[in-house]
Amino acid sequence: MYPRLMIDINKLRSNLEGVARITKEQGRCSLMIVTKGLCADREMVKLVCQHPAVDFVADSRIHNLETYACRARKAGKQTVLLRLPMACEIEKVIKFADISFNSEVATLRLLNEEAAKQEKIHKVVLMIDLGDLREGIFFKNEEAVLNTVSEILSMKNLELYGIAVNLTCYGAIIPKYDNLSQLCDWAEKIETKFELKLQMVSGGNSSSIYLIEKEELPEGINNLRLGEAFLLGNDTAYGTKLPGATDDALILEAQIIELKEKPSLPIGEVGVDAFGQKPYYEDRGVIKRAIIAIGQQDTDISSMTPLDSGIDILGASSDHMILDVSQSEKKYEVGDIVKFKVGYGAMLKTATSGYVEKVYS
């Protein structure tokens, strides 16, 4: 059935080994693999949990951790909740996550109370915001950071496992030696003041891995959290392909449901489309237009690349995608399949959509 996301498990394995070589052998960091990109799909999680190079398995959704916490722990991996916990999910966080990332004292208190009920010691990683302006205590607010550390250390059922930063995802701030060095400075300051040793200083996600190749990752960083690098084979700072990895482990396939020659410009007054945007149309004259059975509800057209270089994506509504196939050397027919490489946005939406089948090859 179509549309479907074709997943080459051997290429994913190769990607995993590629990022492991960079992260662990070259960078001397522990490896945390993030599973949310494929919505913690079972076969992908199985691959990750079985791989000896993986130290931590992480997701931003406690629902996903719930589906594989037992498997990961049996394989000797620690489970990590990346998104700051919601108050409504505290019980599950303690049950299914060995470690959670945090920035709010109120949430930490709830975690401590629940951990006591479940008779557990829960590990927490304190998020420091170095300027990307997503989660974390702002790095210039020394009093807030130190007070929060003090609070954590006073809680009997929490362990301060480490500190971490997130970059690129919101503010698009690229990790550099200078800003990640500030995280290392914070680690040293916390260890000195409170006479302890942090187990983890996590220097970000797939946007930080390029620093290892350039030999610019600060020495104090000892962990990276990799999702896109593993699944799509590239760093997310500059989008460059990683050595030993491939960008075509995931291929989206969709079927043509209409194929007709029509004008390239709509006729009549242009308003807004189904998503409230006013579109722009290029006058290409009469073109051969193919409609495939997938749309904005199921994917992100801005991060899809047709494998056939003669195809242009013109646009999409919720359930239909319009292609210009005029320049293709292939003579398409209704029922034919069009294939695409996917970027991060398209991968997330297709993996989450119940209308897109996942098929392993």
UniProtKB/TrEMBL annotation:
InterPro entries: Ala_racemase, Ala_racemase_N, D-ser_dehydrat-like_sf, PLP-binding_barrel. Its EC number is 5.1.1.12. Its cofactor is pyridoxal 5'-phosphate. The keyword Transmembrane does not apply. Pfam families: Ala_racemase_N (PF01168). Keywords: Isomerase, Pyridoxal phosphate. Residues 7-229 form the Alanine racemase N-terminal domain. It comes from the Bacteria. GO terms for molecular function: ornithine racemase activity. This is Ornithine racemase Orr.
